Amino acid sequence: DAGVTQSPTHLIKTRGQQVTLRCSPKSGHDTVSWYQQALGQGPQFIFQYYEEEERQRGNFPDRFSGHQFPNYSSELNVNALLLGDSALYLCASSPDRNNEQFFGPGTRLTVL
Amino acid sequence: EDQVTQSPEALRLQEGESSSLNCSYTVSGLRGLFWYRQDPGKGPEFLFTLYSAGEEKEKERLKATLTKKESFLHITAPKPEDSATYLCAVLGGGYNKLIFGAGTRLAVHP
Questions:
Q1: Which of A1, A23, A30, A32 is the most exposed place for a label (fewest CB within 10 A)?
Q2: Interstrand relation of A102-103 and A74-78 (parallel, antiparallel or unpaired)
Q3: For A94, nearest residue in chain B (alpha carbons)
Q4: What is the pLDDT of residues B15-55, one digit of tens each?
C-alpha cells in the first residue's frame, strides 16, 4: 500500500514566478492538508481539502491556492513567489478530520 | 490562542542514556495530541496519538504519556538510529489543522 506521494521532490524558481505542487493521498484517505515548514520550525497549516472543497484555511495570503480532484489527489499553487516562500511543503492525508494525518516526503521549494 | 511549546530545543545523549522530551500545550477542547519523528529533509513520520489525560502508548524504545497540560516522550536506552527531530502537534476543538511545536532535535552518539 503506497503512502502519501508528492511531486516534484525539489523545485527552484525565481521571484514572481508561479509554482504547482502535487499530492496523492494514502489509499482510503479522502482528506488532504497542506503545510509549510521553514528550516528549523514546525510545519504551519496552509489549508485542508475535503470533498473537493477547501474546508479550512490557515494564515496564508491568497497567493496560496489549492484544488482537490475527484480521486482525492490535490494541488497547491503559489503565485507571485517571494524569497520567503522558500520552504519544505508537506502534504498530509487522513481518512477523516479526526484521525491521524500521514505525511508525504515533501517538496523542497527554493525561490531565488 | 492555542499553542505548543517543546523543550529542550536540542538534546545530545550517549547511546543507552535514557531521557524525556517535553511538549506543553494550550488548546481549547483537545481532540488529540500527536508525536511525529522527522529525519532531515523528509516528511514527518507518525508515531503516536494520545486522546486523554493518563493515556500512555509505547513503540520499541519510545513511550508517550499525556497529562492535561503536557505530554512526554520517553526514550529508553536510545541508539544512534533514534537521532532525529521529534515533533509534537495538537488537534483542537473547532478546527481541523494540526498545530505543531518547533520540535526537539535529538542526537544519540555511540
A1: A1
A2: unpaired
A3: B96
A4: 999 999 999 999 888 889 999 999 999 999 999 999 999 99
Inter-chain touch A43–B100, beta carbons under 8 Å: yes
The pLDDT of B66-81, averaged and rounded, is 97
- Amino acid B107 reads A
- Interface contact B91-A45, CB threshold 8 A: no
For residue A110 the three cell numbers come to 527554493
Provide CB contacts within 8 A for A105, sequence distance 6+. Answer: A4, A5, A6, A9, B42, B43
Q: What are phi and psi of A84, to 5 degrees?
A: -70, -5
- Mark yes or no for CB contact A106/B97 under 8 Å: no
Closest listed residue to residue A21, CA positions, set A80, A72, A67: A67
What whole-number distance in Å separates Cα of residue B89 and Cα of residue B109?
A: 27
- Contacts (Cβ under 8 Å, ≥6 apart) of A93: A4, A23, A25, A26, A29, A31, A32, A33, A72, A101, A102, A104
What pLDDT digit, counting tens, does each position of B48-65 carry?
Answer: 999 999 999 999 999 999
* pLDDT, tens digit (0-9, with 9 covering 90-100), for A35-50: 999 999 999 999 999 9
Interface contact A105, partner B, CB < 8 A:
yes
* pLDDT, tens digit, 9 for 90 and up, residues A57-105: 999 999 999 999 999 999 999 999 999 999 999 999 998 755 689 999 9
Cell numbers at A34, concatenated: 497542506
